[in-house]
Design a protein that fits this description.
There is one protein chain. With 501 residues, the protein is an alpha/beta fold. The chain folds into 2 domains: 217 residues, Periplasmic binding protein-like II (D-Maltodextrin-Binding Protein, domain 2), CATH 3.40.190.10; 206 residues, Periplasmic binding protein-like II (D-Maltodextrin-Binding Protein, domain 2, 3-Layer(aba) Sandwich). Helices cover 35% and strands 13% of the residues. It has 17 helices and 17 strands. The strands form 5 sheets. Strands 7, 8, 11, 12, 13 and 17 form a 6-stranded mixed sheet that branches. The longest helix has 18 residues. The protein is globular, with a radius of gyration of 23 Å. It starts with 56 loop residues before the first helix and ends in a 6-residue tail after the last helix. The relative contact order is 0.20.
């Protein structure tokens, strides 16, 4: 991972993603799909509540049974997390106290302001004791090899909450399976990265939703030349932060992100001849001035700002941001016609679509935890309505208020964007009492339908990504022909021992 983690503005990488099996600045992969979440509309909900819709009876009973055990007096937990908690040290204290108020568990919340990966690994290596830690599944795989984690298999299989398919879909657990065992449990739902475009501009100009690479090019040109702003400006067509994320275009050739094993040999499809048509398309888009000319050095914040200020028609980014784009723009200007919509990716020859899903964010319990039983209880509680409400809306009285059954975000809550570690819960029984951000549900449905979890390893971000970035960028801007760029990329990966052929 090229960037560091700042919990106040936890964002996906600019040149390297915090998703998938990302690796932060020369160390192990930690933060799964970390997504900045600036803020939804502060409007109050109607008389909604987390239990406003019918819920699965088996879950309802399991939740009631678990909550009936509260408060857990005399229990303590030491939790290490990069995302769960407040946005400041003072709010972390409030968050820990809120957990205690809700559960009775006394919590020591360790919430580093930066360098989370170094902190986690250094502390575990030194034997520092935590009861519960947040990370992603790729890091779990590494730590299992070091015998640093507790086997949670029996606990998970015996949990009426975690095994309920309305809480965690059964198929999802395959992502956490390590040789038939579980050493982690889901902390939140991780979405995927997709094409997001200005739907209002398409509607204004009477354009159809693009499906193929050719469609995307034609749409960019039409939006540039069709004056969708009504002021004579010519918006750019595409914005990315370096090569993050070009997978929606690789989808057009049926290319998978990450490693792919072919005949027992490790390959990287991005560095194969199959990817040449995509690089030709990207180079064409750049040469014709449709691609942001600063994409090679741009950050995700840069292209977000271009998109929200009517200077850009398409970006490739997390599904969560479809809702956030709409929310931020409409909060600033309720009369804006702005409408972002996710369209996943370009279809391949067989109509298949492939987008990159974030590596699962998980809770795990270290092998030296003082109280693994209470830690696991907390994991279950995190998936109940009180836990989800805390992890999303935040602290009652600080982030939101409830009056006569109506939930309303405070001004601070709006800034916090309903993200205190669980902005996108798995539990299908829970209804966000504030409401869902416009376009988010549709985008997440695309993630579930088309998301693919790339196969990577601990060297991916530190060794592989810089090589991919260098040659892909040089190819797009014209320093290499697409064929020569692929050949040079392949040779560099092969000589570094990062692929087998």
């Amino acid at each position: 991972m090229a960037s560091r983690i700042d919990r106040r503005t936890l964002v996906s990488r600019s040149a390297a993603t915090v998703a998938g099996a990302a690796v932060l600045a020369g160390s192990s992969p930690l933060l799964a799909g970390a997504q900045a979440t600036p803020g939804p509309s502060p409007e109050a909900s109607p008389a909604a509540s987390p239990a406003a819709k019918a819920i699965d009876p088996a879950f309802a009973k399991a939740q009631d049974d678990l909550l009936a055990q509260l408060p857990l007096q005399g229990k303590k937990l030491r939790i290490l997390s990069a995302v769960v908690g407040g946005k400041t040290p003072e709010e972390d204290e409030l968050f820990a106290k809120e957990i205690t108020r809700l559960t009775g568990i006394e919590v020591d919340l360790v919430h580093p302001t930066a360098d989370y990966d170094q902190k986690l690994l250094a502390d575990l290596a030194a034997g520092v004791q935590y009861d519960l830690i947040y990370t992603n599944q790729t890091t779990v795989q590494m730590l299992v090899g070091q015998e640093a984690l507790t086997d949670l298999t029996d606990r998970i299989k015996g949990s009426a909450i975690l095994t309920n398919p309305t809480v965690i879909p059964t198929d999802e657990w395959k992502m956490l399976d390590i040789d038939g065992k579980y050493y982690s449990a889901f902390q939140k739902f991780e979405g995927a990265r997709m094409i997001t475009l200005r739907q209002d501009w398409l509607d204004k100009l009477g354009l159809e939703t693009p499906k193929t690479l050719d469609d995307l090019y034609t749409t960019m040109v039409a939006l540039r030349d069709g004056d969708p702003n009504g002021d004579g400006s010519k918006p750019l067509g595409l914005g990315t932060a370096g090569t993050y994320d070009i997978q929606p275009f690789m989808s057009s050739q049926g290319i998978l992100p990450g490693y792919v094993t072919v005949d027992g040999k490790k390959t990287i499809p991005y560095a194969t001849e199959a990817a040449i048509p995509v690089y030709e398309w990207l180079a064409k888009v750049f040469k014709e001035g449709l691609y942001d000319p600063n994409f090679a050095t741009a950050t995700t914040a840069d292209f977000r700002n271009l998109f929200m200020t009517n200077k850009l028609s398409m970006v490739t980014y997390w599904d969560t941001w479809v809702g956030l784009f709409n929310s931020q723009v409409h909060t600033a200007d309720p009369n804006s016609p702005f409408q972002a919509a996710g369209i996943a990716a370009a279809e391949g020859p067989d109509g298949k679509v492939i987008i990159s899903r974030g590596s699962p964010s998980v809770w795990t319990i270290p092998a030296n935890a003082a109280d693994p039983d209470t830690a696991f209880f907390f994991i279950e509680w995190w998936n109940t309505f009180p836990g989800i409400t805390l992890g999303s809306l935040g602290i009652e009285g600080n982030d939101y208020t409830v009056e006569n059954g109506v939930y309303k975000l405070t001004e601070l809550g709006v800034q916090h964007g309903m993200d205190h570690g669980d902005p996108t819960p798995y539990n299908a029984n829970w209804t966000n009492p504030i409401g869902t951000l416009p376009g988010l549900a549709e985008a997440q449905a695309l993630s579930k339908q088309y998301g693919y979890l790339a196969v990577t390893d601990a060297k991916w971000d530190t060794d592989v990504t810089p090589i991919l970035d260098e040659y892909i960028i040089k190819t797009i801007i014209g320093d290499f022909s697409p064929a020569d760029g692929v050949a040079a990329m392949h040779d560099a990966l092969l000589s570094a021992g990062l692929i087998d052929e």
